[in-house]
């Protein structure tokens, strides 16, 4: 026996089809209104204070032209930025690379993900005493950053230059204890970033983060013996958000506002060519 056809006025679970359509329409209208309201709120982005503030003023102008308002929140150091994002006090941040974020996600129990590249700040190998790699003497003292992420990065650069070898079992963040071959008997001295940059005259050479090299007045061209390549490099910086918001409607406009020719030009100007725009 065939089921009896249901008329439009016949109740289903106590609600007629006509009323159900009306409720659906009202719900959809409510969601659209809520979405529009959410879009109208400023997107709060955490960054490091300094030259990046000049960069983000241009990003804000670019975003404003598309109807997106960005509120920039500055921090003097990186660790609190991810904590603020994970807590929901920020919508996004832009200051870090992949290995740093991986360590922070582990430490915080957070789920922050990258959504668009910004720039690459290659670490450099600098010396005020020696002019070429070949003149670095045996028993030289080489400074490297003391934090695990950047120390590993520095040691990998020294390995790529043929100055030492790292144990293949060291993982992504090797330390001086993981050096398996040191043919020049180099002394590796671990120093905090600002101290390392200022101590370069007292060292034979040092692997210095670009930002601190710039702030310490190191000549990024004449005193640089080598620097990282950007090819297949995990240390490219990016804009990051909490994972549930990776596909939010404001994310792509935010990324697009950064990845503009006027931002590229300002990056090169503000950092005197020391950093490289990391989008195509």
Give the SSE layout.
Elements: H1 17-40, E1 43-48, H2 51-64, E2 70-75, H3 79-86, E3 92-96, H4 98-108, E4 112-117, E5 119-120, E6 124-126, E7 141-145, H5 148-160, E8 165-166, E9 179-181, E10 187-191, H6 193-198, E11 205-208, H7 210-215, E12 224-227, E13 238-242, H8 251-258, H9 261-270, E14 276-277
Helix pairs in contact: 2-8, 2-9, 3-4
Q: What does the radius of gyration come to?
A: 26 Å
Q: State the total count of DSSP E strands.
A: 14
| Through-space gap between termini | 65 Å
- Percent helix: 25-40%
What's the multimeric state? single chain
Question: Helical segment tally?
Answer: 9
Subcellular location: Membrane
Protein name: Lipoprotein
Keywords: Lipoprotein, Membrane, Palmitate, Signal
Membrane topology: Lipid-anchor
Search tags:
globular, alpha/beta, five-stranded mixed beta sheet, 9 helices, 280 residues, disordered N terminus
